[in-house]
Design a protein that fits this description.
Helices cover 28% and strands 19% of the residues. It is α+β, with helices and mostly antiparallel strands and 134 residues long.
């Protein structure tokens, strides 16, 4: 591997994959440790670590391909819906430091993904919004 990135090696064909879609910009292939049947990764062929270092023009084109692949998966499987996941940094669950999008087909019988929420404190939220407002 030229830069020790497993996803770059997959994009270069050095590591085999189960391709779903490919063009000059991206490769979409089945995740070998899927969350559900049809779980697909969409990666750019060029190496970018995450959302913040991927040029916006490239990111737009990747998302167009994510949409195209998701629509195809929804029709071909079929499934009732899908999640699109994109993690940035180890703390967020990114295990390969190459930007990628997970398309996870979902069926009504899967149950819901559980995110733990808590009641927000309105004063604390107002202060936080003031601190981070752009």
């Amino acid at each position: 591997m030229k830069n020790d990135c497993v996803f770059c090696a997959i994009a270069e064909g050095e590591i085999p994959s189960f391709k779903v879609y490919e063009d000059d910009l991206v490769l979409a292939y089945l995740d070998i440790n899927p969350f559900s049947e049809g779980h697909t990764l969409v990666i750019p062929k060029e190496h970018f670590t995450g959302l913040l270092d991927t040029p916006s023009d490239v990111l737009k084109e990747i998302v167009v391909r994510v949409q195209k692949v998701a629509a195809h998966l929804k029709a071909a499987l079929p499934c009732d819906g899908f999640n699109v996941l994109q993690n940035n940094g180890a703390a967020a669950g990114q295990t390969v430091p190459h930007i990628h999008f997970h398309i996870v087909p979902r069926r009504s019988s899967d149950g819901k993904i559980a995110f733990t929420s808590q009641e927000g404190n309105m004063d604390a939220l107002a202060a936080l919004a003031a601190r981070i407002r752009m």
